Amino acid sequence: MAATNIAAEATLAVPTWQRVSELADLVEIFDPGVQVCTWQREIDPAIETYLSQLHQTEELQVIETLSPAAQPVLDCLPAGPGRASLIDDLSLLCEVVCELLGCREVGLRLARLRRTMCPGWHIDRVGIRLVCTYQGPGTQWLDDQVVDRRDPHLERMEEGAFLQATLGEVVLLKGALWQGNDRLGAVHRSPEVAGGASLRTLVTLDPLWEA
Fold first, then answer.
1. Dihedral pair phi/psi, residue 4, rounded to 5°
2. Which domains does the chain have, with CATH numbers?
């Protein structure tokens, strides 16, 4: 019995999220126990400068389907220094998703928001999703991913028991539909956007496979 308890405690002690410093190490997401894997990186500061100069009260949403060789169009974004850097970075993230997950296309959603999109702790009903914040506060995820996902309110969670992505950090979130991820999935939420603050700009990328 004691040996069983020790084994159970060891299992719970295994990290359920990983923060890596190299792009290649995003393969950690394939570890069955890892629900969140993030890549901390430096992005071109021209991107943040460009976004900060856009109209600060204008929300927008861009939805496109991209192959690794294609670049996003972003017709609704005005010309200016930094726009090309943003497009190049989105193209890079598209390539990352396609190469890492073996898909031919990705669904891209670029959004600028003044409100909190998904304020409650939740699990996405997808296989896996990449999130990257370019402006404003980053995505938050639970430090301890060993929780009862059948509780829709996750009431045992206390403020402070979470981590937060930095600007430009690539966040991979396993969803409830990831193969072998029954009753699992990354527990995360959108950060609060303070009143009067700049809009939050983020991209989500979903891998698309042929039916």
1. -65, -45
2. 15-208 (2.60.120)
Helix, strand, or coil (residue 158): coil
Query: Which pLDDT score, from 0 to 100, does residue 113 have?
Result: 86
Token pair of 13 as six digits? 């002690």
Q: Pinpoint the alpha helices (H) of 72-168.
A: 83-101
What is the torsional sign of CA 67, 68, 70, 71?
positive
Full-model pTM: 0.87
Q: CA 202 to CA 134: how far, in whole Å?
A: 6
When computed from its CA atoms, the radius of gyration of the chain, rounded to whole angstroms, is 18
The residue assigned the tokens 């929300």 is: 59
Per-residue three-class SS string for 166-180: CCCCEEEEECCCCCC
Q: Which residues are CB-contacts of 5 (< 8 A; sequence separation ≥ 6)?
A: none
Question: pLDDT tens digits, residue range 74-126?
Answer: 988 999 999 999 999 999 999 999 999 999 999 999 999 877 666 688 889 99
pLDDT band for position 147 (cuts 50, 70, 90): confident
Determine contact, residues 188/139, Cβ cutoff 8 Å. Answer: yes
Q: Report the C-alpha gap between 59 and 177 in whole angstroms.
A: 30
